[in-house]
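<instruction>
Derive structure tokens from the sequence
<entry> Chain with its tokenised backbone below:
===
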Amino acid sequence: MFIAILGRQPEISIAELEAVYGAQNVQKISNQAATVNCDNLSIDNLGGTIKCGQVITKIKSQKSDRNTLLQASKIIVEKYTKKLSHSQKKITLGISFYGNKTDPRNVQKIGIILKNNLKKSGVSLRLIPNKTAALSTATSHNNKLGRSEAKIEIIIAKNVYGDLIIAESRGAQNINSYTQRDRGRPKRDAFVGMLPPKLAQIMINLSGAKPDDYLWDPFCGTGTVLQEAALIGVNAYGSDLSDKMISYTTENMNWVEKTFSTNTFWQAHQADATSVKLTGEQKERISRIVCETYLGQPFSAPPSPEKLHEVVGNCNHIISDFLQNIRSQIRPDTTLCIAVPAWQNREGKFTHLPLIKNLKKLGYQQIIDKNLLYYREDQVVAREILVLKPADIAKTA
């Protein structure tokens, strides 16, 4: 059993875990964590999980949160004093608590007791200070916690019933790699939008793509989806309306091959997603479509109702035409994971594309019935993630 610490949008994190490990094996225990019943959980293969760990034990809720944490402290100190007392290496230790507000000093105290116990055995331990109850992903990653026997992070996660799950970390997200794959690429273009590599990785997982599969990104832009596909051994086609974007994708993919030694098939060509015709080979090969569709113009503040109506209509028209165009060309077993726009107003409410309610008329059905929105609190244009399968086209009256 593993625990996964969820990212900024927990529903997307859960959906990704369910797509990779099976819904029956994933249980959300809070807005911050889920348990995953699997043989191995790899943090490097997940975009929506910020840390993961192997579960050690579960502490039932006591009379108070303080008593429950004290019980957890006793178990942790006893287990790790025994485990590390004969270590020949200097130990680096971090402790993270995920739950309601907890004084970081109470979390730090567990490490201090363990450090003093190990000192009596001649074992040196460096305790990473807790400024907050949970160490940041950057702190965990940069200290390589969970990546070796001598670099340990103990994760304590509270579930909705007040029980505590105790786990030993198996690593945190490699934020440096994401930065390199985003800002380190030779070509970027803020004007056309920049799909985060982390979200591209999530979407590929939501599509169910596996190594040696073929996917297609019909709005490939600078090639982020193709890049993330190559990193996990998935072959990819990319197309875009703009010749400039195809040149950017080509240069970025050449960089990916050189930098990360990838060895997958990829191909990029100019084409309009609303009228593109797949070749016979592409129709036979492609089993996944992963893309960020047209998001419309960017906004720094919510637009007027008139402007919003215009932009929604324009995006809805283009994306509907795209879905209608490819419907008869794709295999019946194709899974589509597409990002479409949704617009947030000042009250935090979203305007969604009308086509979402008319997917059956377009010949599709949603296979994940969740509201998957990827956005920042101050962001007007959000990405709404749709996971679709071809379906019988509904007849209109």
